[in-house]
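for the writeup, i need someone to sanity check this before i put it in the appendix. the sequnce is what the collaborator sent (i think, or maybe the updated version? ugh). structure was predicted straight from it, no edits. if anything looks off just tell me and ill rerun, i have time this weekend
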Amino acid sequence: MSLKDYIAERKAIRTPLVMTHVVCGYPSFEDNMKELEIMNAHGVDFVELQFPFSEPSADGPLFVKANQESVDSGTTVAQCFDFMAEVTKRFDFKVLMMGYYNTCFKMGHDNFIKRLKEAGGCGYILPDLPIEEADELHALSKQADLTPVILMTPTNTDARLAQLGAASQDLVYCVARKGVTGSKTEMNQEVITFLERCRQATDVALGVGFGVSAKEDIDFIAEYGDIAIIGTAALKAWEVGREEGLHRFFESLGL
């Protein structure tokens, strides 16, 4: 099933869909699997598996810490792909690789796409790769039926959003506010206007992330977007209360 068809099928059941996030190897792969079991139990539709990197420029303090501790513990790209393969065999939600272009560059585009496909991933998010430099990677992705998830931000002009929209397929990641991940976003008229601009630029599903942490955020995205992307808030819940804390967090979202 194509990612576009998967999104349409899941949206027939509920809206918005939910995407969550796990930093591979933090605090451990065993903990990652426990987190994913809970996410699966609460019906998430997508999970980003973040391949840790020493300079995660789009991430806020908690994810920077998680990335660095995972790197320091010796987590490798090969381990992340092996873990992804285990996850995609075990769960029904779709899995995206999230990381930074350095990982892909060091592997080589062909090898990156090959490993991602073999591991059962449906696509990837590389927030530091401009579309002007992504032609080869995107062409290889299309051949492999993998989705490159492009980011749209509030600072993009309408002309730039149109360029990003033309290069997108299946879904885009709408960054709800300026800055890095982690802090709360006020879901207000400013965000509505931004999402309306994104809608005009593309007809693919709109994933909305950065600061999504409460049921009212989910309800807001149900009205103006398609996929609620939850990252830091879930990791905070795990840090504070581990399994029970993460269960309570998803219950508070109505999941």
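The first strand starts at residue 17 and ends at 23. The CA atoms of residues 16 and 226 lie 5 Å apart.
thx in advance!!
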